[in-house]
Design brief:
The complex is a heterodimer. By secondary structure, chain A is mainly beta. Helices cover about 0% and strands about 60% of the residues of chain A. In chain A, strands 2, 4, 5, 9, 10 and 11 form a six-stranded mixed sheet that branches. In chain A, strands 1-3-8-7-6 form a five-stranded antiparallel sheet, with no helix packed on it. Chain A starts with a strand and ends with a strand. Chain B is mostly beta strands. In chain B, the strands form two sheets. In chain B, strands 2, 4, 5, 6, 9, 10 and 11 form a seven-stranded mixed sheet that branches. In chain B, a hairpin with a 2-residue loop joins strand 7 and strand 8. Chain B is globular and about 40 Å long. The termini of chain B are far apart. Classes of the chains: A mainly beta, B mainly beta. Chains A and B meet through strand 4, strand 5 and strand 10 of A and strand 5, strand 9 and strand 10 of B.
Chain lengths: ~110, ~120
């Protein structure tokens, strides 16, 4: 059972555009929501993370929007660049279980 | 900061042999390390969690006798794939987190294992 559902599976955006990736969860015990960027053949790199008591967090071109009541959160990449082309994973952490649950991943392609 | 290394980056071995993968936290003390497995174009699947000085906790369906994990120090954890078979071929990734910040995991670059 996939506890964190991520969409879309793939996304193509023009350079300078906004990339939006969405995630939804069911487990209300999740209390930390990071996003990871992974390039082919590399390990994931932590991009940005949010806790459920905050509705939005921005770091540079990356913004997380969090809707606790809807149990949804999203990653916005502003001014998308070809170098942003990678696979993005949302994740959710459950303190009681001490584990990260990952979404299925979104393959982002930013065309020049 | 928060750099995690893995060695080797890729390994090819014959079926039936054992392979050891090292995971090191270079600039912080990793009280908890996690081992993941990732198949092509798929998400990461947690295999086990290890705390320094304690036995690893394995996820359901992961054979503890096949995937031996040792976390002997605050900067080093090892994963040994024993009697490897072709179906064990995968991308193995470790992550590490510091005391008090267990939810913030920093990932290593991964190890590509190919079993012939």
């Amino acid at each position: 059972q996939q506890q964190v559902k991520q969409s879309p599976q793939s996304l193509i955006v023009q350079k300078g555009g906004i990339s939006i990736i969405n995630c939804a969860y069911e487990n209300t015990a999740f209390d930390y929501f990071p996003w990871y960027q992974q390039f082919p053949g590399k390990g994931p790199a932590l991009l940005i993370a949010i806790r459920p008591d905050v509705s939005e967090k921005k770091e540079g071109r990356f913004t997380i929007s969090f809707n606790k009541s809807a149990k949804q959160f999203s990653l916005h990449i502003m001014d998308s660049q070809p170098g942003d082309s990678a696979t993005y994973f949302c994740a959710a952490w459950e303190t009681s279980g001490s584990r990260l649950t990952f979404g299925e991943g979104t393959q982002l392609t930013v065309n020049p | 900061g928060a750099v995690v290394s893995q060695h080797p980056s890729r390994v090819i071995c014959k079926s039936g042999t054992s392979v050891k993968i090292e995971c090191r936290s270079l600039d912080f003390q990793a009280t908890t390390m996690f081992w993941y497995r990732q198949f092509p174009k798929q998400s990461l699947m947690l295999m086990a969690t290890s705390n320094e000085g304690s036995k690893a906790t394995y996820e359901q369906g992961v054979e503890k006798d096949k995937f031996l994990i040792n976390h002997a120090s605050l900067t080093l954890s090892t994963l040994t794939v024993t009697s490897a078979h072709p179906e064990d071929s995968s991308f193995y990734i470790c992550s590490a987190s510091a005391r008090g910040y267990i939810e913030t995991q920093y990932f290593g670059p991964g190890t590509r294992l190919l079993v012939l």
